[in-house]
Amino acid sequence: MRQANLPLLHAPYKGSGPAITNVLGSRVDGMIDQLSASIGHIREGRMKALAVTSRARSAQLPNVPTLIELGVKDFEVGTFTGLFGPAGMPAPVTDRLHAALRKALASEPVREKYRAMGVEVMDMGQAEFAAYVRTDFDKWRQVAKERNIVVE
């Protein structure tokens, strides 16, 4: 809202489902959501994608511009899913899980399932993923600090 200078009202929901229901029912004007939750409605014409928040256009919605393209300078927000375990997990266990995950994600049928849900698979090693998570955490910690956002 700050970067785009838009006077939006944040209405918290308990998940995408109730928010999507209210968009589809015209009870709210719009929402920002993970593509995986909304893509079916977009493909079927029940919702219209106005922009994506990633730095590049989505391969699933190539005709939908990014917010950067629409003039919101340096705007990039994404979601990610990763596999996490307890601190102190033994390296052999971590290595085995990582190898199994990479093998599964290298499978074209698995990758296609993710693509169909609007998810881009990011091939990362353990250290690279840890750095990615840390960078994302630091980014949002700074936003919270600047805007005086606290968890209640």
Describe the overall structure.
- With 152 residues, this protein is mostly helical.
- It has two domains: 79 residues, 3-Layer(aba) Sandwich (D-Maltodextrin-Binding Protein, domain 2); 56 residues, no CATH class.
- Helix content is 42%, strand content 0%.
- The protein has five helices and no strands.
- The mean pLDDT is 91.
Largest sheet: none
Do you know the CATH architecture of the largest domain? Answer: 3-Layer(aba) Sandwich
Count the DSSP helices.
Answer: 5
Q: Radius of gyration over alpha carbons?
A: 18 Å
Estimate the mean pLDDT confidence.
91
Number of strands: 0
Relative helix content: 40-55%
N-end to C-end Cα span: 21 Å
CATH class designation of the largest domain: Alpha Beta
Overall geometric form: globular
Note poorly predicted spans. Answer: none
What would the CATH topology of the largest domain be? D-Maltodextrin-Binding Protein, domain 2
In terms of DSSP E residues, the strand content is: under 5%
Going by helix content, strand content and strand pairing, the class is mainly alpha
Number of domains: 2
Order of helices and strands: HHHHH
Name given to the CATH homologous superfamily of the largest domain: Periplasmic binding protein-like II
